Every structure is written in C-alpha cells, then in structure tokens.
C-alpha cells in the first residue's frame, strides 16, 4: 500500500516531467521562431545580372539565350557614386579621388571642387569631348541636362568606378575606357555613336541603356 510519502514523490515526478515537456516545447518554439526570422542576406554587388548582357558586344548581338556564360555582378548607379555619404558607391575601393565638397546643401554635398581625379587622364579616359574637358569624375557625375547629353558621362564614370570596385562586374576598366574612346572618336556624347567590331552601330542613348542593364537598380 502506497504511503503518503510515496504519493508525494510521484506527484513531484509528474510535475517535473510536465515542466520538462513545457520547457522543451518553448525551447523548440524559440528555435523555430529564430530560424523563421533569420534573413537570407545577399550582397547587392554579388547578385548576378540575369537576362542582361555583361559586355557591349553581347548587348549588340542581342543573344541572351545562354546566360550561363555571361552572368556577372551588377554595379551601382551614377546617383550612388555621386553621393558617397548616403549611396552605396565607395570611392575607397577605387584608385580615384572624388575631391572635396564645394557647396553643402541640406547636409549633403551637391557641388565639388576641381581637386578630384580628372575625367581626362592616363588612368581614366582619353578624348576631347568639350562636355567633360577640365572636369573631374565627380563633377561629371553631377552634370545635368544638356551639360551631359543622355547622361553619357555620368554612366561611363559609374561603369569605370564599378569596374574597379566590384569583383565580377561584367566589364574591366579597359573595356569601359574603350567604349568611351569609341564614342568620342565617333562624334562624342551629343550626337555620336559606338561602332562595334561586327559593323553594327549603337547610338549614345543605346550605349547608356547598355550600361544601365549592368546596374543593380535596373534589374
């Protein structure tokens, strides 16, 4: 016959068992909740550009049926590069200098001095387009309207910065420089064109569209 002490011990075992079950359930709930809330973090610049050509020759051919050989990391826009204090573009990952701020507006720099890396130079671009003569890379990024037809200058600068800063970007610095030199030799930003090796031609506006297709914001 069970004594009062035996009954008390049995009750304690039941309570401890129930507590263990509850604790186990709560532990599993916390684990599952944590797993559900853990974000899958993808690096913006490592995201492949799918459905877009990474080279201008591929863009001109119009053959996007086989992306396996042409996936590349997407780049930052001109807007990101011209606002390094809020944008994603980090000039420290390039060999270039944005220059010092000239005018501060609403806590943001909207005009730069001419002490940054020149647009025309041995490590940047060669040419004679008057739209960009005497300006720095950063100053070209800030040109607007007719100062930079089709925003060609801003996009070619962004492409050059991306080529240096982003591993896996579809174009090398030499590729970007060659595109600019080609357009410059064929009329420049205002009314020029790019002539491909296949004899096909792209307008400046189409060249800008190609560069945009390599940028994350347009994917």
Contiguous uncertain segments of 5+ residues: 10-46, 64-69
Number of domains: 2
Number of strands: 4
Q: Sheet with the most strands?
A: 2 strands, antiparallel
Helix segment tally: 8
Explain briefly what this protein structure is.
The chain has 219 residues and is mainly alpha-helical. 42% of the residues lie in helices and 7% in strands.
Topology:
Blueprint: H1 4-37, H2 56-61, H3 78-82, E1 101-105, E2 108-112, H4 137-141, H5 152-165, H6 173-185, H7 188-191, E3 193-195, E4 201-203, H8 204-213
Antiparallel strand pairs: 1-2, 3-4
Characterise the protein shown here:
The chain has two domains: 1-38; 47-218, no CATH class. With 219 residues, it is mostly helical. The protein has helices at residues 4-37, 56-61, 78-82, 137-141, 152-165, 173-185, 188-191, 204-213, and strands spanning 101-105, 108-112, 193-195, 201-203. The termini are far apart. Strands 1-2 form a two-stranded antiparallel ribbon. A two-stranded antiparallel ribbon has the order 3-4. Helices cover 42% and strands 7% of the residues. Helix 5 (152-165) packs antiparallel against helix 6 (173-185).
């Amino acid at each position: 016959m069970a004594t009062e002490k035996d009954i008390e011990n049995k009750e304690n075992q039941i309570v401890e068992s129930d507590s263990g079950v509850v604790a186990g359930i709560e532990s599993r709930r916390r684990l599952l909740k944590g797993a559900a809330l853990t974000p899958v973090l993808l690096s913006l610049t490592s995201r492949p550009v799918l459905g877009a050509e990474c080279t201008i020759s591929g863009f001109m051919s119009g053959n996007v049926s086989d992306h396996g050989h042409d996936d590349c990391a997407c780049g930052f826009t001109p807007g990101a590069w011209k606002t390094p204090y809020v944008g994603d573009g980090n000039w420290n990952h390039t060999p270039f200098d944005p220059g010092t701020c000239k005018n501060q507006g609403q806590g943001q720099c909207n005009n730069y001095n001419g002490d940054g890396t020149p647009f025309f130079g041995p490590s940047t671009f060669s040419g004679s387009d008057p739209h960009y003569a005497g300006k720095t890379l950063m100053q070209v990024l800030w040109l607007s309207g007719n100062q930079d037809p089709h925003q060609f200058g801003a996009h070619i600068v962004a492409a050059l910065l991306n080529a240096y800063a982003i591993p896996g970007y579809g174009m090398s610095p030499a590729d970007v420089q060659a595109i600019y030199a080609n357009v410059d030799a064929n009329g420049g930003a205002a009314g020029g064109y790019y002539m491909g090796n296949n004899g096909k031609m792209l307008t400046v506006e189409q060249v800008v569209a190609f560069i945009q297709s390599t940028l994350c914001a347009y994917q």
